[in-house]
Amino acid sequence: MNVVHRRYCRSARWRHHLDDLLPWALEDVSLGPDSRVIELGSGPGQTTDWLRGRVGHLTAVERDEHDAADLAARRADVQVVHADARDVPLPSGSFDAVLCFTMLHHLPSVAAQDQLMVEAARLLEAGGVFAGSDSRWGPLFALAHVRDTMTLVVPGQLPARLVAAGLQDPVVEWRRDALRFRAVRP
């Protein structure tokens, strides 16, 4: 992430945006006090903070060493794993839900996004849900990604990609600034 983008993802403004985005992204996803949830690409942990009071056991996976260490130091009630979300060193079928918020566009290619979706399917137990959101193109979004990775997710292509990753019943919906998705592991 470039410096401007990194700063924004730690801001009160971003936290306020998440208060709108996350309930919308998870509107039809059942999470509760007994759920075992893994968040792929937790970044500085603002989404993790929002999730913590809403799920049972929470694991956060973050590739950036400093973000992972900071989150682990700040959230003793979250299992933090420093790893690439495309290769998580945890057993298959360990989670009821795999969540991923506004991070797919940070991956370097569509193929890398597809690898993450395959990994999400591997981590899910049968009947578990892979759900999340990502940003859609807009002028401010593009400006925040100058000299930064920006591999946009095309909403109309995502259902087939989720099925190819080993998931079923994909649902993809979008609004002006974001898309949300969910699919189930058979």
Automatic annotation (TrEMBL):
Pfam families: Methyltransf_11. GO terms for molecular function: S-adenosylmethionine-dependent methyltransferase activity. InterPro entries: Methyltransf_11, SAM-dependent_MTases_sf. Gene3D superfamilies: Vaccinia Virus protein VP39. Residues 39-131 form the Methyltransferase type domain. This is Unannotated protein. It comes from freshwater metagenome.
